[in-house]
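thread: overnight batch results

M.L. [08:02]
morning all. the overnight job finished for the chain we discussed friday. pasting input first so we're all looking at the same thing
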Amino acid sequence: MTDKPATTYVVSIFEKPRWRTVLTTKDKQKALDMAKEIGDKVRIEEITPKPKKR
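M.L. [08:03]
and the structure it wrote out:
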């Protein structure tokens, strides 16, 4: 199996006193568009699981 793990993009916005997740998607462009629409105090995290060793 040579399946590449899927990357998940998490868009979060800072609302005092913590970060709140707004969107979780597998589409990078959708994540970037959402962050652009929200404006300031936004971050995008990329999460890629490591493949399991056998």
